[in-house]
Amino acid sequence: MAPVPGVSYAFQPMLSTRTGRLLALEALARPEHGTVHDVLRDAARADRLVEVDAALAAGAVRAATTAEVPLHVNVLAKTATRPDELLDPLLPALRATGRQPADVTVEVTPPFGGLSRDALLDGLKALRQQGFRVAFDGAGDGDLPLSIVADALPDMVKLDAYLLAGVPDNPAVVALIEALGHLASRTGIRLAAVGVESEDQLAVLSRLGVPVAQGNLMAAAQHGTPAYVTPEVTRLDGLPVGPGGPLVADLVHPAVTLPESATSEEVRQVFVDSPEVSGVVLIDSGGRPRWTLSRNRFLLAVTGPYGHALHASRPAARHADAPRTIRADASSIQLLEAAGETEGSRAGDDVVVVDPVGRCAGIVRLTEVMRGVAEAKVEQAVALNPLTRLPGTGEVTRELDRRIERAEMFVVSWLDVDRFKTVNDTKGFAAGDDLIRALGRALSDLAARLAGTRVAHVGGDDFLVVTDVDEVGTLATEVVDRAWRVDDTTVTVSLASLVCAVGSVGSHRDASRLLAPLKQRAKAVPRSSWVLGRPGSDRVDVLRGRDHAVGA
């Protein structure tokens, strides 16, 4: 199929709201004359709407020269109901550019009205069978039915820019996004926000659990602006969450920076032009923080009688303080403890965040840190299982997605008690609770000893564990090789482990789907058992159980 004449493509970055890391690029068609809506309207009048829409999607793939970054392309919902006509130009475009379908997300856009639900669901299924990911665009201002979201369970739902205009001032809009965040957390759908224009919006979205954002603010952060240095966010991504609340990396803001040779007049002008800026960081030629300037103290020094004449052309560093710095992988509690040691007028100053080689990566505001720690403590308390005091599945699913994003190899395991109902029925629920508590303590102790291990209590007698590859053997030794007893009865357990190489799974949902049959395989092995599998392979290694032979 020939490309649509007179159309070029722009690519808008989609960034992590937590770290600022570039996650994907969305291809946006840009006709020479008019808009893409005009092109599609003309195609509809000529009864060629699906044909032209599919050609635009294929053209977007061919125009995307950066194959290392995942790509999002837009198609109308009507086009998605006719997958053969969409795939006919799209698959050759992928082959021509060396991309894999798994690297491309097809964003299905309104209108949805008047379409056959079954045809749309069948079309999305056909796209997924080819390996594409699926997103729904326009949530909050289009005619996207929530029932379609529930039936299709797309990989992503994008909040419309019109909805985002109400953030953070409209409490109803914030509540709506919070509700969608709960839907996403329960289903594994990722939320993305379109049209992010301000840091306030970005902060609210991050707090509400919207992990992806795009818009003018994100594009500016990607390309940099004269007064702001883009944070080295790629070095802050995916750091492990410690017990001290959110990471510093979760709360970082871009730093307003100037060279360490900046004059007082240059700094004064930044404060005058940007009333929201609370401080300026003076950096050396290598991007390392040398001095910090607090708005109030600096302006008090240079704007008094004769202050401008005395100081304007002189180095601003004369009025600066040595920077208070902290690593991005520190916890919020560690930051508060360090800040608490500072007395006097600097106690409330911003703290400079540095990357592993000491470069300025942004700033954190202590008021936000205190609020974040308080919220984290409340959320942790609510999420803990009352029996084992272990977190629920959210802890492990977030850890899985973090490891997938930063391209790490890991193992995810599912542990449960064999015939647990029989234990409750014959020994009583109190004895069953004691057994679950004992398992929970063993797993908690294991997580405390092993740096790469995260544990969640799914509910009942089920536990999820994420480990580094070299830690899974210790997990099996601790829980499978141990003799578990309830009164005078021996109880067996089943452990199913999925070894995930880099790139073998795309999300925690993929890992969960592949782990489920391994769990059934483990439960079919007599006595306490441990089976191990890998994505893309039918081979299952039976490592504990009646037989220790390899194979399935």
From TrEMBL:
**Entry's Gene3D superfamilies?**
3.30.70.270, EAL domain
GO MF terms, alphabetically ordered: cyclic-guanylate-specific phosphodiesterase activity
For this entry, the protein name equals: Diguanylate cyclase (GGDEF)-like protein
**Annotated PANTHER family:** CYCLIC DI-GMP PHOSPHODIESTERASE PDEF, SIGNALING PROTEIN YKOW
Q: Which domain of life is it from?
A: Bacteria
Q: Which Pfam families match?
A: EAL, GGDEF
User: What InterPro entries does the record tag this protein with?
Assistant: CBS_dom_sf, Cyclic-di-GMP_PDE-like, EAL_dom, EAL_sf, GGDEF_dom, Nucleotide_cyclase, Rev_trsase/Diguanyl_cyclase
Segments forming domain GGDEF: 408-545
Q: Where does the EAL domain start and stop, copy by copy?
A: 1-235
